[in-house]
């Protein structure tokens, strides 16, 4: 089983590359951002809570996110493997994922960290904001998301370095070039 964590700051290409990865490797895909946006458009209680954090560029609380993954994990594990996109975003979430996967006798095979400079992240997200309709794709919220990434999410890199499953790759260039680097990493751990 190939369990992949696709990791990086907001706008690094996690969602974009996940689409390519699931097609080539036939993995189940779970994006916490997509799940939260579906809850928001469904006007659920979880969606109302999530919206209040997302609109400010803050992380949704760990217990909400971990509960959401817990509800999905059974339908995800098995078969070829899973790609976790936008999760874990805190060390607490990374520990929870490890425990959840252990219940199915499996673990994270590799964490792929997409490295992209801050200016490029801002440019991409502002560009997406012109058409996405996403409430968090405006300059003020983008800057907040990047600073939240630096303080709360970046420590997850050291968590996976300690587990010896971390790989950083350059996330700048064409989508195909970056996908080429990702496939080299995934083929080496398969
Ligand atoms: P996400 O939906 O995960 O949003 P994101 O970090 O901005 O990543 P996304 O996948 O959308 O962008 P991508 O890099 O693919 O999360 C949104 C919010 O939900 C968070 O801020 C948080 O509040 C909450 N949330 C989600 N998960 C959570 C968790 N686990 N814990 C707590 N809170 C959580 O792409 C960005 C843009 O770049 C795209 O427009 C794309 O077209 C473009 N792009 C991609 N690759 C490119 C390339 N090579 N060159 C040029 N442009 C490129």
TrEMBL record:
Chain sites annotated for binding ATP: 11-16, 128, 173
Record-linked Gene3D superfamilies: P-loop containing nucleotide triphosphate hydrolases
Subcellular location: Cytoplasm
Chain intervals for the UniProt region annotation (NMP): 31-60
Major localization class: cytoplasm
Domain of life: Bacteria
Positions in coiled-coil regions: none
Known catalytic reactions: AMP + ATP = 2 ADP
Family matches, as InterPro entries: Adenylat/UMP-CMP_kin, Adenylat_kinase_CS, P-loop_NTPase
List of residues binding AMP: 32, 37, 58-60, 86-89, 93, 134, 145
One cellular-component annotation, GO: cytoplasm
Family: Belongs to the adenylate kinase family.
Entry comment, domain topic: Consists of three domains, a large central CORE domain and two small peripheral domains, NMPbind and LID, which undergo movements during catalysis. The LID domain closes over the site of phosphoryl transfer upon ATP binding. Assembling and dissambling the active center during each catalytic cycle provides an effective means to prevent ATP hydrolysis.
Name listed for the protein in its UniProt record: Adenylate kinase
Gene name per UniProt: adk
């Amino acid at each position: 089983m190939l369990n992949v964590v696709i990791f990086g700051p907001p706008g690094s290409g996690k969602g974009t590359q996940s689409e390519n990865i699931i097609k080539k490797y036939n993995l189940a895909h779970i994006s916490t951002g997509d799940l939260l946006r579906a809850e928001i458009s469904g006007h659920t209680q979880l969606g109302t809570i999530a919206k209040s954090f997302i609109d400010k560029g803050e992380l949704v609380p760990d217990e909400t996110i971990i509960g959401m993954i817990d509800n999905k994990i059974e339908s995800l594990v098995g078969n070829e493997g899973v790609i976790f996109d936008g999760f874990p975003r805190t060390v607490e979430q990374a520990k929870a994922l490890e425990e959840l996967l252990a219940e199915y006798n499996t673990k994270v095979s590799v964490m792929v960290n997409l490295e992209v400079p801050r200016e490029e992240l801002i440019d991409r997200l502002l560009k997406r904001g012109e058409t996405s309709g996403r409430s968090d794709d405006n300059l003020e919220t983008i800057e907040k998301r990047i600073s939240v990434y630096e303080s709360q999410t970046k420590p997850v890199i050291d968590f996976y370095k300690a587990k010896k499953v971390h790989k950083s790759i350059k996330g700048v260039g064409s989508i195909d070039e970056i996908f080429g680097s990702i496939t080299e990493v995934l083929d080496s751990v398969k």
